[in-house]
Each structure stands twice: as C-alpha cells, then as structure tokens.
Amino acid sequence: MTVGAFLRYFPDAPGEAPDCGKMADGPSGADWTAGEDFGSEDEVLLRKNCARILHRYLQKVMGVRDVTTGLPSYEDVRDIYDCRICAPHISQVLARGIMETRTRGNLQLFEGNGEVLKEEASLYISRMLKKGQKEI
C-alpha cells in the first residue's frame, strides 16, 4: 500500500465517509496533513509512517489528547526508539491498541520499516476511529 492510498481511507471528519477520490495533497479535506512529512504519495507505507499518520489524525482531526500512562518502554518494545521522530507516535498507537507489536523469538518489536498491507491499514483506521470516539 502507498502513503497516498492510505490517506484516501481517512474521513475528513469523524463520522463522515472517506472521500476515496481525493488526493493526499489536494484541496479536499487534506488540511490536517498540512505541514506533515508522511512521505510522498507514491512511497510504500511503512509501519512507522502509518503510526505517525494515525496519531496525527487523532490529534488534529479528532482532538484526542495523548495518553501519559501505559506507554510502552524499550523493555516492552525493543526497537521503539529506532526512529526518534516516530517513537512518540508509535507509543501512542501501541498504548491505545490501534497497532500491535510483532513477536520475534522472545522479543516484542514494532518493526517500523515493515510495509503495511491494505487489510492491515483498514483495520488500523477502524480501530483508531473507535478508540478516538471513546476519548472525545
């Protein structure tokens, strides 16, 4: 899945249906992406960028405040700080149960450079919208 395709799954406001015809950088409801560097529209959607997009949507569109308790640590998710820019976003989506870690042996890893598949993307957005509505 690409970044652009993922962004087209998002409704412009909570409760609305997504406008699947809009472009990620187009005029239709893309204000919440302004000033963000989620990658170009044609780039493969990586798990770390997916976490950033989900978290920023929660903040900017849904008005959800960050959780401060129950955040995963390095002992919980061994690669959580591999991307210092993404770490706060990853922490928020993991703490809310929107995305999950992956088990490798006896380690829990986020694997931020892994590709997000279409089915996963749809599941993450569904979880985000449900969790966000509960926190508004």
Structure write-up:
The chain is mostly helical. It has helices at 3-7, 47-60, 87-95, 118-135, and strands at residues 102-104, 107-109. The protein has one domain (3-135). Helices cover 34% and strands 4% of the residues. The chain has a two-stranded antiparallel sheet with strand order 1-2. Helix 2 crosses helix 3 (87-95).
Helix share, percent = 25-40%
| Cα separation of the termini | 29 Å
What are the low-pLDDT stretches, counting only 5+ consecutive residues below 50? Answer: 20-29
Strand arrangement in the largest pleated sheet: 1-2
Using the alpha-carbon principal axes, give the shape: globular
**If you compute it from the alpha carbons, what radius of gyration comes out, rounded to the nearest whole angstrom?**
14 Å
Number of separate helices = 4
What is the total domain count?
1
Q: What is the number of strand segments? A: 2
Biggest sheet layout: 2 strands, antiparallel
Which structural class is indicated by helix and strand composition? mainly alpha
Mean pLDDT: 88
Quaternary organization = single chain
**SSE run:** HHHEEH
Work out the strand percent: under 5%
List the helices and strands and how they pair.
Blueprint lengths: L2 H5 L39 H14 L26 H9 L6 E3 L2 E3 L8 H18 L1
Task: Summarize this structure briefly.
This protein is mainly α and 136 residues long.
